[in-house]
Design goal:
Elements: H1 3-6, E1 7-13, H2 21-32, H3 43-55, E2 60-62, E3 65-66, E4 69-72, E5 79-89, E6 99-108, H4 112-125, H5 129-136, H6 141-151, E7 164-171, H7 174-185, E8 190-198, H8 200-204, E9 220-229, H9 233-244, E10 253-259
Parallel strand pairs: 1-5, 3-6, 4-6
Antiparallel strand pairs: 2-3, 5-6, 7-9, 7-10, 8-9
Length: 269
């Protein structure tokens, strides 16, 4: 699946004048219903699903961007749409900024893995502030679509590779962990698992001999275990360093890469 296959031209709107979140969700539901893929569900049902998702936490992730999304029974394929709000709309964003760019996803109920990958690919594409600025300033629906697809030209497929590496990413900071996990979730042919780890120092410090070493350093870290196609290993490291800077110069994150002699099967996300 590619974004070019799921971005629906009829679901793009430049220059929306919505002035609050409730009105924005209503307009998104109406815009989404322009796709024939949603013939089996009502506009009211789409709105209700979007609202229900927002009760779990805002889909605005800062920098003037929101990605409202939901999964629905009766939807047979992904419907992705775009909307710009030049004057901005309050969306309960964590950074307190108004949202000027909205990318929405209406997804089939059962395709959660693809949904997660799609969210990650889109959020990664919108990390480039210059791209977001061009999208917000787009004068036509076609211009908005073109800028977005150029930035998000990535396959969201799930083919299983024959030769794989196992990558461990040890992270001590929760925010950095979330950022790295989000960055890696959008990659094709990647299986991710999370493990909670405890540093050996926390155990040693329980012995009188090592009591002086208890200190205040973080004893717990999270470990991302990624099984990736070997040709993607450099891309994994590039994405991590896009968050941490050079791994040779940062602390609190460590990455190891091992070649697997045998790997088969798959896991649900």
């Amino acid at each position: 699946m590619k974004l070019t296959d799921v971005l629906r031209s009829e679901c793009i709107r430049v220059g929306s004048m919505v002035d609050d979140k409730a009105m924005a969700l209503c307009e998104i539901a109406a815009l989404a219903k322009k796709s024939r893929l949603l013939n089996a569900v009502s506009e009211e049902a789409v709105l209700e699903a979007l609202q229900e998702r927002e009760t779990l936490g805002t889909t605005a992730f800062g920098h003037g961007i929101a990605i409202p999304h939901c999964r629905m029974r009766g939807v047979r394929d992904f419907v992705v749409g775009l909307m710009t709000v030049p004057n901005g709309v309050e969306f309960e964003s964590e950074d307190g900024k108004k949202v000027h760019l909205i990318v929405f996803i209406i997804a089939p109920l059962q395709q959660s893995n693809q949904h997660i990958r799609l969210l990650s690919v889109i959020s990664q594409a919108l990390q480039d502030a210059a791209v977001v600025k061009r999208m917000i300033k787009a004068k036509t629906d076609d211009e908005l679509k073109t800028v977005f697809l150029r930035a998000a030209a990535m396959d969201v497929s799930e083919q299983i590779p024959a030769m794989r590496n196992q990558i461990h990413v040890f992270v001590q900071d929760d925010k950095v962990f979330r950022d790295i996990l989000a960055a890696l979730s959008g990659l094709d042919n990647v299986l991710l698992s999370i493990v909670e780890g405890t540093r050996s120092r926390s155990y040693l410090s329980q012995s009188p001999l090592y009591a002086d070493f208890s200190g205040s350093d973080k004893a717990v870290c999270k470990i991302i275990v990624a099984i990736v196609e070997r040709t993607l290993s450099n891309e994994v490291i590039r994405r991590i360093e896009g968050i941490t800077g050079s791994l040779f110069e940062c602390t609190g994150v460590m990455v190891t890469v091992q070649e697997l002699t045998y790997s088969a099967g798959s896991l649900e996300v």
